[in-house]
Every structure is written in structure tokens, then in C-alpha cells.
Amino acid sequence: MVKVTFLGHGCVLLEASQGKVVIDPFLTGNPLAKTKPGEIQVDAVLVTHGHGDHLGDTVEIAKANNALVVAPFELATFVGNQGVNAHPMHIGGAREFPFGWVKLTPAAHGSAYVDDGQTVYTGNPCGFLVKMDGKLIYHAGDTGLIADMDLLGKLYEIDLALLPIGDNFTMGPADAVEAVKMIKPKVVIPIHYNTWDLIAQDPQAFCSKVKAETQAQCIILDVGDSYQV
Ligand code: NI
Ligand code: MN
Fold it and tell me: How many domains does the chain have?
């Protein structure tokens, strides 16, 4: 069993008997976040791309927990240079870690660390398939709708898909419903919306459409709430 806690925006905490993992820990500066980086206790930090609203507090959390950062090669190198233990992977690659199995999936987006006028290229963005305690969870990262999602539905039985619905930077609700049709997860939870006005969306409307057009169950998590997979 995996306890999935939504920490706001793209940030999700996965807690299983096998270990604890946080994905895209953007807490400092996240207007929705109720959790402080110092409260996060994990074995690993998974990061989909270098944008500030995903890389977030990765370095602080990794150092405080002596946690492994798993990210695409260029991004792993970037955080590794900041003194954390980082494991590089890339799209299509999978690996068994003590805390679970991880595979990097394609995402159609950008990836650079942009701060104070300085831009550091951090490789291709990704999504993650994570298997813990026998449950398969897909975190799409920031992505538009891509036909590659059809492969995920064909090759895997995904228990839970975490999909962005905010639009503007990622899929909007209509495209995310199409993604659900391809991925065919048992459960979908919308993420990456309502953090700012620019990505304001109605998750109820999204879930109604998922219910009407797909077999998946759609769950809306308030920030801080959990769902057991
Ligand atoms: Ni992004
Ligand atoms: Mn984002």
C-alpha cells in the first residue's frame, strides 16, 4: 500500500513500507503549500525538470535527509554539484532502488534552471513511473498531451496517474482527459493547477469529464490530503 499525499502544485509525497519518496518538492514560495521543507522525511527526491516550481527545495531536503536525488542526467549533475547525492537517469531508463522501482518517461516541456538572469540547461524534462509495494504510480511531470502516453496504457497497468491540468504551461483539462483515455489508470488525481491565476482550473469539472468519458476513478486532493493506493 502506498500513501499518496498532495503537497501542492506538482509536489507529491509517496510513503510505502519500502520507503518514502517526494516528487518535485516546490514548497518554499509555493502559495498553496502548507508543509515546510524541514518537515519532509524521505529516502529519495525525484525531480522531473529544472524549473523552479519543480526543483524547488530539492537540495535542502536531500541534504537534511541524506536522501538520493533521482533526475535526468543533466539535472542530476547540476544538483550533484551542489553537494547532494544524485543518481542520473534518462528517458526510457529504469532502475530498482531500495525504496522502489523508477522509470523515466517522456514529457513534452522545457527544462532549465532560471534564476537571477542566469539560465542553466538541465536536459530533457521527464515524468516518472514509480513502483512501491507493488503499486504502480505515474507522475507525468509538466507535459503537453503526447501520443507516448498510449504506450504507457499498453505496457503497464497503472494504479494511479498524477496528471497536470493547469493549461498554459502543460495539458489543460480537455487534453488531460484524452491522456486518461490512453494511460487507462485505475485512478487519476489532477495536479499543477490553481497555484496561480494563470493555471486556474476547476478540478470538479475535470473529474466529471473523466467519469463520463473513461473508466478511471478521479480523486481531487486538497493540499495536505492523502489517498491510499
Ligand atoms: Ni515546468
Ligand atoms: Mn511547472
Answer: 1
Q: Which three cell numbers stand for residue 164?
A: 497536470
- The pLDDT-based confidence of 115 (bands split at 50, 70, 90) is confident
Q: Which three cell numbers stand for residue 59?
A: 537540495
169: CA distance to ligand 2 center in Å? 7
Question: Cell 527545495 belongs to which residue?
Answer: 57
**pTM of the full predicted structure?**
0.98
pLDDT value for 117:
83
- How many angstroms separate the alpha carbon of residue 195 from the centre of ligand 2? 10
Q: Would you call 43 helix, strand, or coil by DSSP? A: coil
Give the CA angle between residues 101, 186, 210 to the nearest 5°: 130
Which ligand gives the minimal distance to the CA of 53? Answer: 2
What is the CATH number for 89? 3.60.15.10
pLDDT, tens only, 121-163: 999 999 999 999 999 999 999 999 999 999 999 999 999 999 9
Which ligand does the CA of 195 lie closest to?
A: 2
CA 43 to chain centre: 16
CA of 100 to the centre of ligand 1 (A): 25
**Among positive and negative, which fits the CA dihedral 71, 120, 114, 171?**
negative
Range of the domain at 149: 3-228
Query: What distance in angstroms lies between residue 110's CA and the mean position of ligand 2's atoms?
Result: 10
Question: Quick check: 16 pLDDT over 90?
Answer: yes
